[in-house]
Specification:
This protein is α/β, with parallel strands linked by helices. The chain has 18 helices and 13 strands. Strands 5, 6, 7, 8, 9, 10, 11, 12 and 13 form a nine-stranded mixed β-sheet that branches. The protein has a four-stranded antiparallel β-sheet with strand order 2-3-1-4, covered by helices on one side. A hairpin with a 2-residue loop joins strand 11 and strand 12. Helix 5 packs across helix 7. The protein is globular. The termini are far apart.
Length: about 450
Amino acid sequence: MIAATSGAASRAAAARVLARIRFDGESLRTALPRLADTQLADTLLDSRDRSLAESSVFAACRGLFRYEALLAQLLQKPLVRSDADVHALLLVGLAQLDALGMPAHGVVDACVAATRVLNKPRLAGLVNAILRRFIRERESLCLAIAGNDEARCNHPRWLIDALRSAWGDDAQNAMQAGNQQPPLWLRVNRRRTDVAAYCEMLAAANIAYSIDPDLPYALCLPQAPPARSLPGWDAGLVSVQDSSAQRAALALQAHPGMRVLDACAAPGGKTAALLEEADDLDLLAIDADPTRLVRIAPALARLGLQASVVAAEVEHPDRWWDGRPFDRILLDAPCSATGILRRQPDIRWHRRATDIAPLVALQERMLAALWPLLGPGGRLVYATCSILPAENAEQIDAFVAAHPDCQPLSLAAHFGRAAGRGYQRLPGEGNGDGFFIAALARG
């Protein structure tokens, strides 16, 4: 392989990862770690190069519909499938010029050099011409795609229609928020420190932060440093968890000594939040995905917490439930993840309208399976990171109608706008993710 400068190598690495996401259907979550095992890993030793590659992949994913529409204007004919990595490289270059606002000359030169790193030197001239034309004709090219709703909103047509139908004028703000880089939200581990003391640590490290008055242990960092570089990370003083997700533990209101089930628990963020919130919980965390479940134990160990962790399917309690009722159940249900596009921007490309009905059916089965496990007077919290009513308000309204012993509970205004028997937060509201929560008591 031809030797590469770090600038060319970072673009080539980003292109290889993005090609897996765009053309092979791999998720960003699994593709991004490949930056560490790519053929170019030995040239990405500098953390700044790895950071550039990662930010470029995220920016290209967030603007994928926009950049694909621009490429359709710029390319005389589509690149062949064997040149998918160069197609992805052009998307990376457009993202760096557009969303990241990087110097044009450096972007063009590095992307041209990256074609050689990708063993595609024959396409160096094409990459040079395409990116330079974009720089020259940006205004007219952007005007040409202004009528393309998918390119303008950076969401697929089916989701644009669904959000406008559900949220009217608020849909545009929700989509814009989903296209932005999110802040880093932290949850302070009250068992090892307090918010005031941790704020002093952040200030000493010159890390800017803000406090959410509605969340007792939440801090918002406008710039997102690597989590492991945060003060007290290894000592378990904080965890990363969005402000919307932090509300799930608050809604459950688990008290010391209660028997609690965290269903669909992996990777363990809400499990930890529950254990930090109340002492001496008898907590069982289950998840059907063993590969994700293994992440819970080390996460809890870092925080000084313990729980029973079992690989199990929520829909089949006869295979794992011991017959003792739970006082509290948290069901963070599998969903479309349409509320977290700013964190997982590839979802906008991979998710299909046809995915929703099977997800709704799965959520319905999970609710039906878990309800008999809840003791009289117990509380179940249903949560999703979706902003589609079918998975949220409509799901819970149907469940309540079918269960006379189910009583919807009121939550504080900061949990979101009323949506049927639950509460919905849209992306960007309070600088948090899109999230739905419903609290149900069993009579």
